[in-house]
Amino acid sequence: MGQLEEMRVFVRIIEAGSISGAALQLNMAKSMVSRRLTQLEERLLTTLIQRTTRKLTLTDAGQRYYHRCVGIIDEIDSLDQHAQQTNSLVCGPLHMAAPATFATLHLTNAIDDFLTLYPDIRLRMSLADSQHQLVEQGIDLALRIADLEDSTLKARRLTTIHFALVGSPDYLSKRGKPFNPDDLREHRILHYSHRSNQTWVFRQNERTEVIHYQPYLSADNGEILNDLAIAGKGLALLPTFICWKAISCGQLEMVLPDYQLEQLGAWLVYPDTRFQLYRTRVLIDFLLERFADNPYWDQALVFGQK
C-alpha cells in the first residue's frame, strides 16, 4: 500500500470513529486496517492514535497529521472529480440505501435506466425499511421516507408521499362504508407496526379529527397490508406508491377521500463530507428528474381538501 492509501485509511479511521467502522467502510478486514495504521506509525516514527478498548484519541502529532492529510486528499479528489466532469466520465463505486418496498416497486426500472446511461458505475444497493447509518456503513446516498430529523446529513427533497385509507369493495359492502372519521371505530384496522402510535389524523376545512384505534392485525410491511386489504381483512392507511395500482383497477377503494391525510417527504440524504462524489450528484439529479413534482403513482388519484 502506498503513502496516499495509508493516509486514506488513517483519515477513514478518524472519521468512522473506530478501526472496525473504517474496515466496514473500506471493505477490508479489521486486522488489515489495524496493520496499516501500525505500519504508518512505524514509518513516521511517531504515535498518531492512542488506542483504548473504548475509543481512539488523536495525539498532538496525529491531530496535525490528520489535518494535513485531509487537505492533501481533498485536493487530489478535487482534481479527479474535475477531470471526470470535464470529460463527462461518471464511473466508480457508488453505495445507495433505500426502503425495501419503495425500491422493489419503483427504483428497479429507474436504476436500470441510470446504469444504461452510466455503465461504468459499480452500484451497490442496500435495502431495508429501517434506517441505515450512512457514515458507519460507507453509504454515499440514501432515500428516506420520513419527517426528516435534524442531523449531520445533507438532504434534497425528492417528492411528497401521500397516504390513502383503503378497503376492498367486498369488505366495505359487508361492514359499511365510513362517512366520517368517527365511523372508523366500528371497523377492523390493519396497522403498519413501524408507526410510532396507533392514531390517524383527518383534516377538512380547517377542522382536525384524531382517531385512536386498536389494530385488528399488525405487520411491518406495507405490501402485505395492501394484499390483506385487497383480501377484505380490513382498512389500511397506505402510501399511495404501494396501493395506487389496486385503487386504479378497482381492487381497493379510497375511504373518506374528502379528508386530507398525513403526508411525508421522500428525501435523498447523504453525508456532510468534505467533498461529495460527482457520481453521487449525478444519481441525485437523475432521481429528482424521474420522481419529483407529481410522480406517476399519484397522477390518477384525487386527494382530500387542504
Structure commentary:
This protein has 306 residues and is of the alpha/beta class. It contains 10 helices and 13 strands. The strands form 3 sheets. Strands 3, 4, 5, 6, 7, 10, 11, 12 and 13 form a 9-stranded mixed sheet that branches. A two-stranded antiparallel sheet has the order 1-2. A two-stranded antiparallel ribbon has the order 8-9.
List the helices and strands and how they pair.
Blueprint (H helix, E strand, L loop, with lengths): L2 H14 L2 H8 L3 H15 L4 E3 L4 E3 L1 H27 L5 E7 L1 H18 L3 E7 L6 H4 L3 E6 L6 E15 L1 H7 L13 E4 L6 E6 L2 E6 L4 E3 L2 H9 L4 E5 H9 L4 E2 L8 E9 L6 H14 L15
Parallel strand pairs: 3-4, 3-5, 7-10, 7-11
Antiparallel strand pairs: 1-2, 5-13, 6-11, 6-12, 6-13, 8-9
Helix pairs in contact: 1-2, 1-3, 1-4, 2-3
Biggest pleated-sheet summary = 9 strands, mixed
Q: Low-confidence parts lasting 5 or more residues at pLDDT below 50?
A: none
| Average pLDDT level | 86
| Count of DSSP-assigned helices | 10
Helix-and-strand structural type = alpha/beta
| Radius of gyration from CA coordinates | 25 Å
Structure summary, number of beta strands? 13
How far from one another are the termini?
Answer: 60 Å
How would you briefly describe this protein structure?
The chain is α/β, with parallel strands linked by helices and 306 residues long.
Summary tags:
306 residues, nine-stranded mixed sheet, alpha/beta, two-stranded antiparallel ribbon
